[in-house]
Design a protein that fits this description.
Blueprint (H helix, E strand, L loop, with lengths): L1 H14 L17 H8 L13 H14 L11 H13 L2 H18 L3 H4 L2 H6 L5 H17 L4 H6 L1 H5 L7 H16 L4 H19 L2 H15 L9
Helix pairs in contact: 3-5, 4-5, 4-8, 8-13, 11-12, 12-13
Bound molecules: 2-acetamido-2-deoxy-beta-D-glucopyranose (2 copies).
One 2-acetamido-2-deoxy-beta-D-glucopyranose (NAG) binds next to α11.
């Protein structure tokens, strides 16, 4: 039963970019929109400390969109499209990864001190004409690139092929971490952070076995940064 469920899910879901270990997305967590709202938007906002000016923000976004092969009109409101294009580019190999990180570096430099506010989920929500889900997808992308393009870069680029194996038949156990996370969250909705801790441990163990301990740490970090604002004290 579990096997056929996983088999079916991997066929259907991989086609839409789910469970890509190179760039985890919000869809991977199998949470409903309501759950995303509950678990990621329950705190009060505090973005007002710095400003995000729309003109440099637009310029920074134009540069990033074109670097990943998208029309200039692609903005943070098209978070799924941006994520998919970024993933596709990284999937081409080390040169694609370098191009994505160069584009990300340019994005950060253009925004300067306003980077944090421009990529803050509450700030983006305040701009309107979007939803919680889209904002999570966008902020997730930015957080993941922060890690992939800085402290995680060396480990990531020298293990691309091994990380990619989790996309294939070897990835059954990888995907099982996500299904288990979903089952745990639903069985015990008030212990989201406990489920998260178990989940990132599952990812850590999978990649340590499949690749090496550096990849185990890096992939665990990649997941951890997505939850760290809401679950304190998570460690890889
Ligand atoms: C993701 O991008 C690839 C390559 O550009 C494209 O073929 C595919 O349809 C896109 N998938 C989604 C879900 O947007
Ligand atoms: C997540 O878990 C719930 C509760 O066990 C289940 O009903 C749902 O189908 C699961 N979602 C996915 C995508 O497997």
């Amino acid at each position: 039963m579990l096997r056929s469920l996983l088999g079916l899910a991997s066929v259907v879901l991989l086609a839409s970019g789910l469970f890509n270990p190179l760039l985890p997305t919000v869809d991977d967590y199998l949470l409903t929109k309501q759950q995303v709202h509950t678990y990621f938007f329950s705190k009060s906002s505090n973005f007002a400390s710095a400003k995000c000016n729309s003109v440099p923000f637009a310029a920074a976004q134009n540069g990033f969109a074109s670097a990943v092969g998208l029309p200039l009109s692609t903005t943070w409101r098209d978070a799924a499209t941006l994520t998919n294009a970024t993933m596709t580019k990284i999937d081409t190999g080390v040169d694609g990864l370098a191009a994505v990180c160069a584009a990300r570096q340019q994005f950060v430099q253009t925004l300067g001190q306003s980077y944090d506010t421009c990529t803050d989920r509450y700030y983006l929500i305040s701009l309107g004409n979007t939803d919680w889900w889209n904002v999570m997808v966008y902020t997730h992308l930015m957080k993941h690139l922060e890690l992939i393009c800085s402290t995680g870069f060396d480990v990531y680029q020298s293990n691309l092929d091994c990380i990619r194996k989790a996309e294939t038949a070897d990835g059954t156990l990888y995907r099982a971490c996500f299904y288990k996370f979903n089952a745990t969250v639903n069985a015990n909705p008030n212990n989201f952070c406990g489920a998260t801790e178990t989940f990132i441990g599952c990812i850590h163990d999978y990649f340590t076995t499949e690749c090496n301990s550096y990849v185990g740490w890096m992939q665990c970090e990649l997941e951890r940064v997505g939850f760290a604002n809401d679950c304190y004290g998570l460690a890889c």
